[in-house]
Design goal:
- By secondary structure, this protein is α/β, with parallel strands linked by helices.
- It has one domain: Rossmann fold (3-Layer(aba) Sandwich), CATH 3.40.50.
- The chain is built from six helices and eleven strands.
- The protein has an eight-stranded mixed sheet, sandwiched between helices. A three-stranded antiparallel sheet has the order 8-9-10.
- Strand 4, helix 4 and strand 5 form a beta-alpha-beta unit.
- The longest helix has 24 residues.
- It is globular, with a radius of gyration of 17 Å.
- The chain starts with 6 loop residues before the first strand and ends in a 7-residue tail after the last strand.
- The mean pLDDT is about 95.
- Bound molecules: glycinamide ribonucleotide.
């Protein structure tokens, strides 16, 4: 595929869908040279489903019983095959994908995680940052590999932790930056500036041995 062909994107969600919405809007505004082919949720009650339908995006739900991992992934693969996306964006998708599934999309699946990886992999990142009294926090866009939240990090946002912060205020500050950096990194992928090669992320022909960091500590975030 040539660099001028719009990327076909599938977005996987489990929740509110604010990142999904930011990505769809960035595509429509021409900030990502991509077209969102489908939004898929693993939860029938995900608030993001209503949002993606309202945006007019093809939307599907694949609810699965706990433990029904392989059947869920079979259904997911069938849905993805029907849309043939070039890339997959995990946007608040809270289900752990199996190593074989991840390997089959290696280099074309990105995730956003609410921490400055490698710090705070896993859940409840904002709570853990507050408990540790860290002064900085943020979000990371990374390639998805079989290691949970362990793939090469491409882009991070850094925010300040304020003395009066609660989980709610801190997560809102971090999410405001997610809506900036995730579309940005997907834009690089769509332009083929961002590539997966030899198990690493490459940007503009240069291997990213450390992520690009955008500093929002002094920014007014909404
Ligand atoms: C986002 O903050 C994202 O970083 C996080 O879930 C939230 C989803 O919000 N993802 C993870 O924790 C993945 N481990 P959204 O549904 O409004 O985009």
């Amino acid at each position: 595929m040539s660099a001028s062909t719009p990327l076909k994107l599938a977005i996987l969600i489990s929740g509110r869908g604010s990142n999904m919405s930011a990505i769809v809007q960035a595509c429509r505004a021409g900030r990502i040279a991509a077209q969102v082919a489908v939004v898929i949720s693993d939860r029938a009650d995900a608030g993001g489903l209503e949002r993606s339908r309202a945006l007019g995006v093809d939307t599907g739900t694949l609810p699965a019983a706990p433990g029904a991992g392989n059947r869920f992934e079979q259904a997911l693969t069938e849905t993805l095959n029907a849309h043939r996306p070039d890339a997959i964006a995990l946007a608040g998708f809270m289900r752990i994908l199996s190593a074989p599934f991840v390997e089959s999309y290696l280099g074309c699946m990105l995730n956003i995680h609410p921490s400055l990886l490698p710090a705070y992999r896993g859940l409840h990142t904002h709570r853990r940052v507050l408990a540790a009294r860290d002064s900085e926090h943020g979000a990371s866009v990374h390639f998805v590999t079989a290691q949970l939240d362990g793939g090469p990090v491409v882009l991070q946002s850094k925010v300040a932790v304020q003395p009066a912060d609660t989980e709610t205020t801190l997560s809102a500050r971090v999410q405001a930056t997610e809506h900036i950096i995730y579309p940005e990194a997907l834009g690089w992928l769509a332009q083929r500036r961002l590539l997966w090669r030899e198990g690493a992320a490459w940007l503009d022909g240069r291997r990213l041995d450390a992520p690009i960091v955008e500093d929002f500590r002094a920014a007014a975030l909404h």
